[in-house]
Model the fold of this input.
Amino acid sequence: MKADIVAGALFPDYELTDHTGKRRKLSDLQGPDPMILVLSRGGFCPKDRRQAEGLVQLHHEMEVGYSRLVTISTDNMLLTNEYRDGVGAHWTFLSDPGRKVQKDLDIAEYTDPQHNPMVPHTILLEPGLVIYRIYNGYWYWGRPSNEDLRRDLREITQKIRPDWDLAAPGLREAWQRGDKSRFWPYNRSLKEVLAEAS
Done:
């Protein structure tokens, strides 16, 4: 991994083709929410498939927790969709068969010249694509458990949501005055909230 891809730095705003054939930027997929970004070896890898199967359960929680999940793999569109459907995933998968991400981040897995995958990573991002934590998944046990990810999402959400603790001084008074700027998503219209969620 490039030396400047560390906690606190900005992750590159890659634009790749999603599983539906649409070009998508990471920043648009993230919106104002925490995001888990999985850099995957691809559907051929049993470790990646097992990780994705576990994420299926966590994704249900992430949807109600205003969090995003995206997988980028070096698979082509056909393999990307087979992988996504095969594990029962309902989040966005981005296809990078040209290996733009692998080359840019310098994460080519040189120990597997047959598949030429990238070294798998799981990256937690604060809003604005700010790197919160990076897990290196070359060995399966280097990948985060769902409990690790829940902890990370809890910490990020607590950091970015001023209304995390409704007992915090001044919040009740602000609400009663009609000042909803510190409450999420009440300070935006329904149209804005729905646009960010898509």
Observations:
- The chain has a mean pLDDT of 93.
- The chain has seven helices and seven strands.
